Amino acid sequence: MSSFSGKLALITGGAGGIGVAMARLWLDRGGAALLVDVSEERLAEAVRSLDHPRVHTYTSALESAAACTEVIAHAPAPIHSLIHLAGIFEADDDMGPDDARAVYDRVMQANLTSGIEMANAWEPHADRRDGPARAVFVSSLAFNRGAVRHVAYSAAKGGLVGMTRALARRFAPGALVNAVAPGIILTSMPAPVIAARREALLDEIPLARFGEPSEVASVIAFLCGPDSSYVTGQLINIDGGTVMGG
After folding, report:
1. Is 104 annotated in the active site?
2. Residue 66, Cβ neighbours under 10 Å: how many?
């Protein structure tokens, strides 16, 4: 099990289910965590849940390059690992072209543009004291299979994978950049979909269950730790076998 002693992780979307699970794992292994989220109230709830002195928070919608630079400026130490979980899940079907375009713009900014702007703000200041820094971007099953009611979201999550591969080349050898693609994980985001289609969704998962946030966090931890020292530009699916192969 890798140790993150003395290392700071910046976790965007840090007040969400996977973000809190990631922070808890990081803290348990000796590191410190900076949770960034749009909701000050949810960040406060995350801090109460984690109940740990090495938790830091910053409220931001990551709405611009300047906002991302502000996040880096408020970090209590150089950031070893950028873990980009931030995003929104918004349907874009059954609407007029103007409304669909508005959804597209919001989804692209929240899921994809914020990712590249965070990466560009972080990389020049990344903590490389023990070797390459790490960045992990969170794609989705929606990219791998396509979500019929969420075309913009599917496109944004696919864009993150292309961005991961490009940044893995750009930032090498000073940083390793990878992505994960969770399937249906038991957090608040997919809860309405699970409620409406539970049995049909389970029928598509070879492991016959939904994933836990901790099961995503453990894979991200691997990508941020020393055991992944020769892994960069990769996408790892965490979906119970729903999608198999590259």
Report:
1. no
2. 9
One of 58, 104, 153, 230 is an active-site residue; which one?
Answer: 153
First-last CA distance in the chain: 26
Alpha helices in 74-150, H assignment, sequence order:
97-108, 114-122, 141-145
> 109-139 in b/e burial notation, b at 16+ Cβ within 10 A?
bbbbbbbbbbbebbbeebbeeeebbbbbbbb
Q: Is 200 exposed, middle or buried (0-12, 13-18, 19+ CB in 10 A)?
A: exposed
**pTM score of the predicted model:** 0.94
User: Could you report the per-residue pLDDT of 78-94, keeping only the tens digit for each?
Assistant: 999 999 999 998 888 88
Quote the CA–CA distance of 66 and 237 in Å, as a whole number. Answer: 32
d(CA 39, CA 58): 9
**Rounded Cα distance, 201 and 11, in Å:** 29
Pull the structure tokens for residue 41: 């109230």
